[in-house]
Amino acid sequence: xxxxxxxxxxVNLVKxxxxxxxxxxxxxxxxxxxxxxxxxxxxxxxxxxxKLLCAVDESYNKTKFLNLLNYKxxxxxxxxxxxxxxxxxxxxxxxxxxxxxxLIKPLYKA
Length: 110
What we know:
The protein is mainly α.
């Protein structure tokens, strides 16, 4: 967690997000960028996340379809994210993208 101004809701969601494995982090992030309730939209980031999930998850690589009904814990997290204000959602998205970056960076050292 890098931002000091986070409120309790965002801090709790980020702490939970940090406990997920990489594939679940990517699934949740992709769904957040695709859902219309969350105001953050960035097609380039979405494309990168999908490519990373293809590399990590073989079943997604075959179908290119993400069904969160198979991941109930991610649905609950997504519901909590939808309850946040737009500013809190932006902060949460920033935090999760930074978290994913921290995980991926050591793998792709050049």
